[in-house]
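Slide 14.
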Amino acid sequence: MKTGIKYLLIGCGAALGAAIRWLCEVYIGKAVSDPFAILCVNVVGCYIIALVSALATKQRISQEWNKFLTTGFCGGLTTFSSFASGMYDLITGGHTFIALCYIFFNLVLGLCAVALGFYTILGKGTKQER
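Slide 15: predicted structure.
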């Protein structure tokens, strides 16, 4: 399959995943809360990426479908699924300390980057004035 077609497939998967994420945020977030909606999306994305990766490992799906569903769909639905899958690979590969450091730095640096972004625009670390 040509590279341009692969990019298009991944892009279509990402668009579909992002649309479903938005629907979940609208309907679950409205009914319960936004953080719960994101938790649901993250957990479902992790489950889907594991199913697809396992099917690809057993060569039950093509590499094109694998990329469409993992990089595309799950990437559009949630990047947390890729994060969790990568951490699982590190841990099961015997690199638990590296995985724990990566988890720690992703959380801490991600929160710091969010705080810096708000500080850059609002001059303080709150979203209340938006």
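Speaker note: The chain is about 85% helix and 0% strand.
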